[in-house]
């Protein structure tokens, strides 16, 4: 039996759950953090490491539709669907398509813009408060092109970003190669995003936040899988593989695994699925690049980290149960090598796969309903939006006025 003597039990110990746990514990809330495996070892460990406030347009864009057949037919392409999973995916995918229409697309864009405008400064303040500065770098990021038509697309995208207040600078080939000398001259130009950051050591950040949380008096319970969750007159009853808990309040931050628990706790079926993402870590290449580099044509990213160069990207729809297809990770090396002047050292490379939690409208669920707090569904932006989401939950918890209009992220949008 796990102790129930806490003000709040957080289900899910990824970066979303952990930043919220630290934020609330520091304000006097007695928090227990429950994780089905080990804290920070899911998508929070394996993401591309970007603090990417520039991602203010929904990933589901109607302009992408004409490219999807070619992506699916390309075995090394950025998109794969396991056709056996398609019947389960279809209800979510139909809603995703509906959200590409101009009116919902604009609504989602504005909601992302409102959230992301606060993300970088929130992270910098949080990092300073909790001694994370060594691993947070604000050197900007690059979006490169290697086709003439893609350079034209970069120009149009740069204008689109600048029009909504996201600063970009168009670099010609000379300026790009001066910025990142390791890149090959087949890279014709780039958009530079100066107001973005990246985390150079995700493991160090997770470990530091875990130590901080425990030092503040919080409790972490690992390998504690919540099997069922129900509300009753005494509180919220959690059935776990380590015993039963009667919780006063809970926050659900279980990422892609949140859907059944939301239904049990609120009665609402959230259109949530997972975009399985892969990375390949090259431990001997930590000094190759200065800033994260994303390829517009190859649709993947290279992020320099203390532990090596992380090649990340691709989207795979195959659900939570299918085994990983690690060839999806290894193929990233085939995309990276042609972009660089000299061969990459791929010795001791490590592949990884994880689950991005994606709602059909590309927006997270950040909300409170009675004694249940909700903080999940951040798709590709969990790391970016983690601190701002924690602050919004704190505003709900203490019944404070909201810095950011909370309505676009509320659960009621799915009723």
UniProtKB/TrEMBL annotation:
Q: Name one Pfam family in it.
A: DAO
- Matches recorded under SUPFAM superfamilies: FAD-linked reductases, C-terminal domain, FAD/NAD(P)-binding domain
- What UniProt keywords are attached to this protein's entry? Oxidoreductase
Domain of life, per UniProt, equals Bacteria
Instruction: Tell me where in this chain the FAD dependent oxidoreductase domain is found.
Output: 7-395
Name of the protein described by the UniProt record: FAD-binding oxidoreductase
Organism of origin: Psychrobacter coccoides
């Amino acid at each position: 039996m796990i102790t129930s003597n806490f003000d709040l039990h957080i289900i899910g110990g990824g970066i979303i759950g952990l930043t919220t746990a630290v934020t609330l514990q520091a304000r006097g809330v007695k928090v227990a953090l429950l994780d089905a495996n080990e804290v920070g070892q899911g998508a929070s460990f394996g993401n591309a490491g970007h603090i990417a406030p520039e991602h203010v347009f929904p990933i589901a864009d109607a302009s992408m539709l004409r490219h999807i057949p070619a992506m699916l037919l390309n075995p090394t392409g950025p998109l794969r669907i396991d056709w056996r999973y398609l019947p389960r995916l279809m209800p979510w995918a139909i809603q995703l398509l509906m959200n590409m229409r101009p009116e919902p697309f604009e609504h989602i864009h504005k909601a992302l813009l409102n959230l992301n405008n606060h993300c970088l400064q929130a992270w910098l303040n949080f990092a300073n408060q909790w001694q994370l500065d060594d691993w947070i770098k604000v050197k900007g990021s690059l979006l490169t092109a290697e086709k003439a038509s893609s350079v034209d697309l970069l120009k149009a995208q740069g204008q689109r970003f600048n029009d909504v207040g996201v600063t970009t600078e168009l670099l010609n080939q000379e300026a790009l190669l001066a910025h990142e000398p390791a890149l090959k001259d087949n890279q014709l130009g780039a958009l530079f995003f100066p107001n973005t950051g990246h985390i150079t050591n995700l493991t160090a950040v997770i470990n530091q936040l875990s130590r901080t949380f425990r030092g503040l008096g919080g409790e972490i319970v690992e390998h504690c899988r919540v099997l069922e969750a129900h509300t009753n007159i005494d509180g919220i009853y959690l059935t776990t593989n380590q015993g039963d808990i009667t919780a006063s309040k809970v926050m659900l931050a279980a990422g892609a695994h949140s859907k059944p628990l939301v239904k049990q706790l609120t009665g609402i079926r959230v259109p949530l699925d997972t975009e399985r993402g892969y990375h390949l870590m090259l431990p001997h290449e930590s000094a190759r690049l200065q800033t994260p580099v994303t390829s517009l044509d190859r649709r993947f990213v290279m992020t320099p980290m203390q532990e090596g160069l992380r090649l990340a990207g691709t989207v795979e729809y195959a659900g939570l149960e299918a085994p990983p297809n690690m060839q999806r990770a290894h193929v990233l090396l085939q995309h990276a090598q042609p972009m660089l002047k000299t061969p990459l050292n791929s010795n001791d490379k490590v592949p990884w796969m994880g689950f991005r939690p994606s709602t059909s409208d590309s927006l997270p669920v950040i909300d409170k309903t009675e004694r249940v707090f909700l903080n999940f569904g951040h798709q590709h932006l969990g790391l970016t939006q983690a601190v701002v989401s924690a602050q919004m939950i704190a505003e709900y918890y203490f019944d404070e006025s909201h810095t950011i209009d909370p309505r676009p992220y509320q659960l009621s949008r799915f009723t």
